[in-house]
Structure formats: C-alpha cells, structure tokens
C-alpha cells in the first residue's frame, strides 16, 4: 500500500505532524513502537493547557484525534527503510509499505544506569524544567556539568554537586540518599545527566548528515524539518535533544506543513 506520508514514531512530534497532515487530507501512516522517552514519568509540564497531564494520556488523546481524521496508526517496529524510484519502502514486521515522503519522529534514549532506571522520571531525572518544581526547596543532588548546579539552584538552595554516582538508597519507595565514592549525601531527588542516544539508525542508513551538539552528533535539519536527504524529514528529539514535549509537537507541525507544500511542488527553496 502506498501512503503520501509515513511517520516513524508516534510521540508528540509524530502525532502532531499526523494531525496536521490528516486535516490536510493526506494519506498518513504512523508507525510506533510504543516506547516513548517520557513513558516512566507520571506527569509532563510546560505544555500550555495540559500541564501535569500524564504523557501517556497525551498520546492517547493525540492518537484518537489523528484517527478521527482518517489517519492510520499501527503499533509495530520498522525493520528497514530503502529509497525507491518513486519514494521509499518501509519494511514493518509483517508487511512493506510505500511512502512518497518520510518523517522521522523516533526520539532518543536516555542511557540511564540499571540501578537508577526504576527511579527515572520520578525522583531521579535529567530535566529540571520538567521536574524541578515538584522537588522545590528539597535536598537535591546534581550529577553532571557544574553549570547545571546554578540552574538547579533556581528550585532549591540545598544543592550538592557530586563527581560520581556509585549508588542510591531508597526507603518506602522514596530516594533518601546518593552514594558518591565514600560519601553518603542525603537527598530527596537526583538530577542526573544521562548520555543521550538518538534513534537515528535508519536516518543514517539513508545518508542523513549530522551536526555536533553538546551531547553528541544529531541528524541535521533546516528550519523546515528537512534533512540532507530529499523527501526525508525529522522532528523532535531525534534531531533536537533539547526539545521538551511542547517544542517537539511544534516541530512536528512545522515539518508537516512543509511536507504538504513539498508534495504540492511548492516547497520554498526545494
């Protein structure tokens, strides 16, 4: 089956793009593996009118909106992506579909150590803008660049910077201390700068160019979401590691508008 647009990734960026494209009466398939980056978090913030909503609830509502306009969403994994004479082939687990344009909204993975994984998105987190207010005026420990300490002090005066995290202590399902070397630091929350790995394997296989960021190389896009590969777009954390949910959604909408113009042959600068 041929779609005008296949969107790989059904988070905020992918669903936002799908909503705009389905309302533009484009045939759209969203392929999502069901592992959003913010899945462990019980709430999201800084999304106007949806502050405090569960990230999974946002996706639930977004899926319903896209499907309400005729968009197709499948829970599946992409096995391969290849260029064809007329566009692209996307191999799924049980079928292969064709697309005239591709949008990658596959996000990234926070490479959190196993001993912190159960606390991630709760009292161990990476983004103080997302979680800092909930632990305001509490005992906070920061692992990462020293410049982050100054940022975290906007939420609490009780901040300790550590050079390593060698363990944590949890009591009654609450973080109570961080172990750094021989030191035990009482803590209500740990701000942990985990390495980030973009889910960009298929983008790179198609030849997409990258650019260096403070956290490593990420696929380069222009302000319209275009990658260096004609017909291939990217939005959200797969190309922008700093994009919070509302920014990723906006990037998805921006890319969708440009994809629609591209399909019409009206893309500026194309």
Structure explained in plain terms:
The chain has helices at residues 12-23, 55-68, 114-117, 128-131, 147-152, 201-205, 245-263; strands at residues 2-8, 28-32, 72-75, 80-83, 88-91, 96-104, 108-110, 124-125, 140-143, 159-162, 167-171, 174-180, 183-186, 189-192, 196-198, 210-213, 216-219, 232-234. Helices cover 24% and strands 30% of the residues. The longest helix is centred in the last third of the chain and has 19 residues, at 245-263. Strands 1, 2, 3, 4, 5, 6 and 18 form a seven-stranded mixed β-sheet that branches. The chain is elongated, with a radius of gyration of 20 Å. With 270 residues, the chain is of the alpha/beta class. Strand 9, helix 5 (147-152) and strand 10 form a beta-alpha-beta unit. The mean pLDDT is 96. It has seven helices and 18 strands. Helix 1 packs parallel to helix 2 and helix 1 (12-23) runs parallel beside helix 7 (245-263).
Give me the oligomer status.
single chain
Structural class: alpha/beta
Number of strands: 18
* Distance between the ends: 27 Å
* Residue windows where pLDDT falls under 50 for at least 5 positions: none
Tertiary shape: elongated
**Into which percentage range does the β-strand content fall?**
25-35%
Question: What are the secondary-structure elements, in order, as H or E?
Answer: EHEHEEEEEHEHEHEEEEEEHEEEH
Overall pLDDT: 96
Computed Rg:
20 Å
As a percent range, the share of helical residues equals: 10-25%
Number of alpha- plus pi-helical segments: 7
Major beta sheet summary: 7 strands, mixed
């Amino acid at each position: 089956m041929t779609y005008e647009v296949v969107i790989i990734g059904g988070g905020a960026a992918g669903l936002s793009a799908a909503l705009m494209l389905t309302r533009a009466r484009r045939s759209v398939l969203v392929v999502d593996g069901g592992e959003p980056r913010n899945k462990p978090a019980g709430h999201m913030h800084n999304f106007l009118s949806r502050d405090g909503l569960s990230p999974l609830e946002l996706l639930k509502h977004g899926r319903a909106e896209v499907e309400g306009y005729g968009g197709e969403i499948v829970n599946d994994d992409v096995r391969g992506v290849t260029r064809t004479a007329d566009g692209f082939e996307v191999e799924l687990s049980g079928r292969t579909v064709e697309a005239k344009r591709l949008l990658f909204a596959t996000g990234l993975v926070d490479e959190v150590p196993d001993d912190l994984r159960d606390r991630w998105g709760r009292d161990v987190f990476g983004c103080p803008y997302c979680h800092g207010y909930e632990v305001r005026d509490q005992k906070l420990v920061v692992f990462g660049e020293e410049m982050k300490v100054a940022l975290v002090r906007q939420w609490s005066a009780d901040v300790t910077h550590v050079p390593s995290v060698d363990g944590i202590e949890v009591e009654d399902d609450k973080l109570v201390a961080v172990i750094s070397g021989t030191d035990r630091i009482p803590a209500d929350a740990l701000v942990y700068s985990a390495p980030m790995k973009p889910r960009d394997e298929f983008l790179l296989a198609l030849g997409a160019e990258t650019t260096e960021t403070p956290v490593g190389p990420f696929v380069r896009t222009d302000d319209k979401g275009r990658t260096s590969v004609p017909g291939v777009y990217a939005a959200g954390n797969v190309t922008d590691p700093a994009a919070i949910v509302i920014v990723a959604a906006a990037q998805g909408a921006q890319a969708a508008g440009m994809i629609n113009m591209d399909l019409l042959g009206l893309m500026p600068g194309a």
